[in-house]
Specification:
The complex is a heterodimer of chains A (about 120) and B (about 110). Chain A contains no helices and eleven strands. With about 120 residues, chain A is an all-beta fold. The chains are: A mainly beta (about 120), B mainly beta (about 110).
Chain lengths: ~120, ~110
């Protein structure tokens, strides 16, 4: 299957700072990328969907000013957690899919964010 | 709205035995795809098997097979000859043909007993 690389895999930051997480599709052009949040022992919660070159679509209850998503190219999307607080600590996963119907999504390795 | 339900939070199976994980879904769409993903302790989501709704034949991938009952909106995963490496969280997922947005179930934690 296709490869999606997410970086960093772990990050610890101080409360009030911002953290950027990158999601790259290494061997295909990702027209659509998804960002999920996963709480311990729970399922993946979709935060937002981004299409290359356009603004992200956020799910209800997700603060767009808090979680900035940029999808500037067909191979890169970034999630920036701004003014992070301890409650933002979580596991964040990206996935990417290409063009056309019947398009499977490929997942990154995830990023464990800890805000202290 | 579409929903995916996994009613078994946890399952156990003896090594080399067979186990079936349940998944039901609700949708009014006629064209969609169903998936089973595995999430081991590394947290990497790994695709186990996929099923196109328009196909009547159940998908199989080596030791993994599904029982897809479209009318009943049921999509169970059977793991044969269970191995220790099969221990993980398993998520059932739905993807409508007109969207790229996955809907995940709450997951089933599978334990494999030696």
């Amino acid at each position: 299957g296709a490869v999606v690389s997410q970086h960093p895999s772990r990050v610890i930051c101080k409360s009030g700072t911002s953290v950027k997480i990158e999601c790259r599709s290494l061997d295909f052009q990702a027209t659509t990328m998804f960002w999920y949040r996963q709480f311990p022992k729970q399922s993946l919660m979709l935060m937002a969907t981004s299409n290359e070159g356009s603004k992200a679509t956020y799910e209800q209850g997700v603060e767009k000013d808090k979680f900035l998503i940029n999808h500037a190219s067909l191979t890169l999307s970034t999630l920036t957690v701004t003014s992070a607080h301890p409650e933002d600590s979580s596991f964040y996963i990206c996935s990417a899919s290409g063009t056309g119907r019947n398009t499977e999504a490929f997942f990154g390795q995830g990023t464990r964010l800890t805000v202290v | 709205a579409q929903t995916v339900t996994q009613s078994q939070p946890e399952m156990s199976v003896q090594e080399a035995e067979t186990v079936t994980l349940s998944c039901t879904y609700d949708t009014s769409e006629s064209d969609y795809y169903l998936f089973w993903y595995k999430q081991p302790p590394s947290r990497q989501m790994i695709l186990v098997i996929r099923q196109e709704a328009y196909k009547q034949q159940n998908a199989t991938e080596n030791r993994f097979s599904v029982n897809f009952q479209k009318a009943a909106k049921s999509f169970s995963l059977k793991i044969s000859d269970s191995q220790l490496g099969d221990a993980a969280m398993y998520f059932c997922a739905y993807l409508g043909a007109g969207t790229y947005k996955y809907i995940f179930g709450t997951g089933t934690r599978l334990k494999v007993l030696a």
